Amino acid sequence: MRGFLFFAVLNALVPFSAQGVEKEAADEKVERLDSVVVSTSRAGKDTPVTYTMVSKDELRRSNPLNSLPMNLSLQPSVVSVNEGGTGLGYSKMTVRGSKGSQINVTLNGITLNDAESQEVFWVNMPALSSMISSVQLQRGLGTSANGAGAFGASINMSTASVGPDAFASADMAVGSYGTFMSSFAAGTGLMKSGMYMNVAYSRNETDGYIRNAFANVQSAMAVLGWMNERNSLRLTWLMGDQHTGITWEGIDPQQYETDRRYNPAGEYYDAFGNVHYYDNETDNYMQNHLQLNYTHSFSDRLAWSSTLNYTRGDGYYENYKAGRSFSKYLMDAPVVDGIQYDEGDFITREALANDYYVLNSDLRYNSERLRMTAGINLSRYDGDHIGRVIWNDVLGDGFDYDAHEWYLNNGLKHEANAFVRGEVLVGEKLTAFADLQYRGIWLKMSGPEDDGVLLDHEDNWQFFNPRAGLSFRWNPSSRAYLSAALGHREPGRSDIKELILDANMAAQAGVSGKGVDIRPEKMLDIELGYEYSTPSLALSANVYLMEYWDMLIETGKLTDVGYAIKENVPRSWRRGVELAAAWRAMTWLELGGNLTLSSNKIKDYTAYYEMYDNMNDWNYLGQKELFFDSTDILMSPSVVGAAHATFRPFASSTKSVRSAYLTVNGKYVGKQYYDNTSSDDRSIPAYFTADLSIGYDIPLRKDAGSLGVSFHVNNMFNNMYYADGWVYRAYFQHEDDYYTEAGIYPQAPANYMLKISFRF
User: Fold this and answer.
1) Using CA atoms, how far apart are residues 215 and 88, in angstroms rounded to an integer?
2) With DSSP H G I counted as helix, E B as strand and the rest as coil, what are the percentages for the chain, rounded to 5?
3) In this structure, what CATH number is given to the domain that contains residue 727?
4) For the purposes of burial, counting CB atoms within 10 Å of the CB of 416, is it exposed (0-12), middle (13-18) or buried (19 or more)?
């Protein structure tokens, strides 16, 4: 209750809305060669889409423990959660309830979404927020974006920032749960020759909050570039390397009541019934991105930019599997000393190896009354999925495990993307906007899955995604806009794979008629907004109608590796209003907040449950159906809000203490359901968290940089809550009852970080 009151009091101080509270990057409009490549996918100040900007300084002031989704958690309609309970490790976010696979993420105009799952695995890019210069978060369909996933929001990130001076920085932080973080960066600035170079490195370690939520992650970036008045050539390398404990199973709700730090990953029992935990129950992945960009300015109005990208990903997760049959791993039952062993304990590795190639090219024209951009994007993704047994208790260490490959299948995906976008000033106050996009996708899957079922499947989709809108600015401070956009999105690999496996299981049980019946989803997004902005006050309101047909909805069930299993529903919607505000009340006081009120519904929804004969035999009988006239979309709270207050008690001073600040943030997330039945038994109660940050920059010798000290408290009210969940249910005909497995994700109580920063 006190959390909600805290949130309400702060928002009462700023009762209107702002969407674009951080206007810095959108308003500068100083067209530089080093940023043309990024601005192509971004909305401008008069583009009729809904967005916010997050500056480098804002990212730098956030808690150093946080991954980028956690850094963005205070933005309108955003809900972020971390599997391990802290801000490091596996993190994910939703925007207006849209999941990660529906959020398009680009870095310097290149899509980071995995081509098969359409997800971005933020743990593969630790400390990314310390390496980027700005972020634009678009809500809704937004502008045309390269790659899949722009079906609810998009995140456009930039590392392209060249300053005039050389710099160096070092950051170190220590905190709760054995957390240690360090990052280093340096750059030459733009030299007289036009050359410049930036490098950055970060290493982060934590034990995590729940058991086995440890993380040992590192990231690096290097940029080598050259530019003159008309040309820019830049080579960027970005590396992410993760070694983390597996946390995707969550914790059973009953276990949560007795030990909220429990994690079942790697648990097994010996012959005497003693519990053990495999100490290498881990997820391991390394990703390298290499981008080469060339930009040429033909004139002050016309510029061309092209980027070549290559991404290599390699990794595996390792599991201890107790009491599994040899046939599960396509191995003959061994005979040892005359005894045949049908089962045993196994250690397995399921691996990924993929190559991603991209060509991105666009041409843009800007004048006082016309802004035009046209671009193409071609990509090829080639990914192998490999299963290996690396140890078995019966076969022992002497067995040649390398000679036995459990499974190998491949996914090959090609995409062609072309768009043209224009904004024209009609008269002196009205801007008309149009954006036309074509996407072609060709997918081929081949080879056996882990149980030997062939995943041979081919599909292709052709989409046309038009957008149009009007923006009316009647004075420099006020703007209103209206837009409509139509979008399509193809199913992901896991969506198709699970249907193939389900059809195979049904065929083995003699159930006919099952097949890969999955369709692309379609959405009409209507946005109506108003903005008011002055140097001391920013207000805005936005009404959105996101109308879906054949939406791919998570059932609440997860695959063995944590992917959400989806199904098409004929009709659904997300409708809401977003309010936000920022007010510089005094030189020493800044207040802000945002609030989203929404209705997220599925109409005429049928839930399907696997049906078995009884709880002892588990003979598959088909599916049981439950019909709902109207129900809530899972993990889509109807109320989301945030508020912040920043105090600068010495802002009027001429001395160094003027940099001292104290910031209090609050986040409120309303009740959510983790399946689509609106059942209180499968819901996440509303929760509120508040964070505190205190910081101070101490100047060193004249022109020698500064020493910064900051202290951060997450969840300072020590709220015990969980923020995500999944469920699997099966129906047993004989018992007329359901079997239920569920997992929820506890978040850490009050925890602390101390950070020291050097800037030179």
Assistant:
1) 7
2) 10, 55, 30
3) 2.40.170.20
4) middle
Residue 411's nearest CA partner among 443, 369, 434 is 443
pLDDT tens across 609-662, in order? 888 999 999 998 877 888 999 999 999 999 999 999 999 998 888 777 888 999
**CA Rg value for the chain:** 26
Beta bridge partners of 722: 746
Smallest Cα–Cα separation from 53: which of 88, 29, 79, 81?
Answer: 29
For 294-323, b where at least 16 C-beta lie within 10 A, e where not — what string?
ebebeeeeebebbbbbebebebbbbbbbbe
Per residue in 137-166, pLDDT (tens digit) is 999 998 877 666 678 899 988 876 677 888
Residue 34 has φ and ψ, to the nearest 5°, of -75, -5
Q: Is 576 exposed, middle or buried (0-12, 13-18, 19+ CB in 10 A)?
A: buried
- CA dist 433 and 422 (Å) reads 6
Cβ neighbour number for residue 390 with a 10 Å cutoff? 12
| Contacts (Cβ under 8 Å, ≥6 apart) of 331 | 389, 404
Q: What's the pTM value of the predicted model, to 2 decimals?
A: 0.89
- Sequence-ordered list of residues with C-beta below 8 angstroms from that of 398, at least 6 positions apart, any chain: none
Structural domain tally of the chain?
Answer: 1
Residues of the chain with pLDDT under 50: 1-31
| Spatial contact of 275 and 269, defined as CB atoms under 8 Å apart | yes
CA–CA dist 304, 154 (Å, integer): 23
Domain carrying residue 332: 2-759
pLDDT, position 9: 39
Q: What is the pLDDT of residue 620?
A: 84
